[in-house]
């Protein structure tokens, strides 16, 4: 049911961990399955290129694989190109996912966008016109 690439990224996830003093951190969750994904970005102030990207995911195997692939896809890209990394692009890079696991890739796209939104917020820029509305998990609530 899973492609070799999905299994590879599940068994050997790339870029696991956190970035201290990250330029942006995004945490999103899926209310239905309860899975949570957090992405850290290290962004070059001048070039706006994502130098490093790490993730932590509390979730299913597909969530781990999609987070891993999403970090690979955005690393080395400018923040503008990273915004174009959709869940479809993540799924294609993994040679597909079963239909009922599609939402796991949506979580990966949202986590990247949430981290970018956080970056814009830290720069004093309203992120909504750029990255849209993201249902971020509020760490200070409850
Ligand atoms: Fe929810 Fe995979 S089952 S993220």
Describe the structure.
The protein has 142 residues and is an alpha+beta fold. It is 41% helix and 16% strand. Helix 1 packs across helix 2 (61-74) and helix 2 crosses helix 5. It binds FE2/S2 (inorganic) cluster. Residues 30, 33, 35, 59-60, 62-63, 101, 103-104, 107 line the site of FE2/S2 (inorganic) cluster.
Keywords:
single chain; 142 residues; three-stranded antiparallel β-sheet; binds FE2/S2 (inorganic) cluster
How do the helices and strands line up, and which of them pair or pack?
Elements: H1 4-11, E1 24-29, E2 36-43, E3 50-58, H2 61-74, H3 79-82, H4 87-93, H5 102-122, H6 128-131
FE2/S2 (inorganic) cluster binds next to α2 and α5.
Strand proportion = 15-25%
Bound molecules: FE2/S2 (inorganic) cluster
**Could you spell the SSE succession in H and E letters?**
HEEEHHHHH
Order of strands across the biggest sheet?
1-2-3
**End-to-end CA span:** 38 Å
Question: With helices defined by DSSP (H or I, 4 residues minimum), what is the helix count?
Answer: 6
**Rg measurement, Å:** 14 Å
Biggest beta-sheet profile: 3 strands, antiparallel
Helix content: 40-55%
> How would you state the average pLDDT, rounded?
95
The best one-word shape is globular
Number of DSSP E strands: 3
Residue windows where pLDDT falls under 50 for at least 5 positions: none
Alpha-beta content class? alpha+beta
Summarize the structure.
41% of the residues lie in helices and 16% in strands. It has helices at residues 4-11, 61-74, 79-82, 87-93, 102-122, 128-131; strands spanning 24-29, 36-43, 50-58. The N and C termini lie far apart (38 Å).
